[in-house]
Amino acid sequence: MATRAAQRTRVKAVWLKSTDDRAMRQTKDMKKEEHKIVTPTDDEVNQYAERNAPIDASTDAAEPAPPAPVDPVDALRREVEEYKDKYLRAQAETVNVSRRLQQQHAQALKHAATDLARELLPVVDSLDRTLEHVNKLPPDDSVGAGVKLLADEFAKVLKAHGIEPIEAVGKPFDPEIHEALMRDASSSLPAGTVCAELQRGYRLHDRVLRPARVAISAGGENETNGDSKGNVEIEPNGAST
Questions:
Q1: Which of 114, 166, 205, 237 could form a disulfide with 201 if both were Cys (CB 3.0 to 4.6 A apart)?
Q2: Are residues 201 and 137 in the same domain?
Q3: Residue 181, SS3?
Q4: The whole model's pTM is what?
Q5: Which domain holds residue 111?
Q6: What 3-state class would DSSP assign to 108?
Q7: CA dist 32 → 19, 23, 155 (Å)
């Protein structure tokens, strides 16, 4: 009996050991499977790519038409026309600037003697007053003849440089070239007409050096605040006194 029990014990131990060995081998195999790199097949790769492909929004919209081909000859022709237009514009601007500079230079030369001409006016006034006295001398007076000759030569020099007297008597009053100092009610000239020149005015070409100081006709109006001759003085601001 003891022998059979011992045999059963040995058989049981062997069986348990073999069972443990199988379990250990299975555990090792499972660990190897966990660390094994699995390589997917081509079909699996293609299926994954189809499922995860990005959505292209441009596929839904209509594709734009390709641009029309550009003729290089036409492009060069347009470029040449553009540069030609710019050149003509620049040339025209250069001509205009040159013309303006020439006009400004001519105007500067034309009126360069303005200051000198204004300083000569008192001399001209003195010469005119001298002529008034000379005209009262006998015609054969040598001094008077010399003064008249000098006045004529001086007037020619002034005219040669563009300095000329302003016409006044008998002309309509013009505030641009005349300065009214009084109004004459006894004058038979139409109203607003210069009837007397009190101081001669002068111009240099088209520029007034000094306006002519004049009396203007009142057209025969009866003035109650004038002098015995009907003359009414006019202040510089235009009011009568």
A1: 166
A2: no
A3: strand
A4: 0.50
A5: 94-163
A6: helix
A7: 20, 14, 133
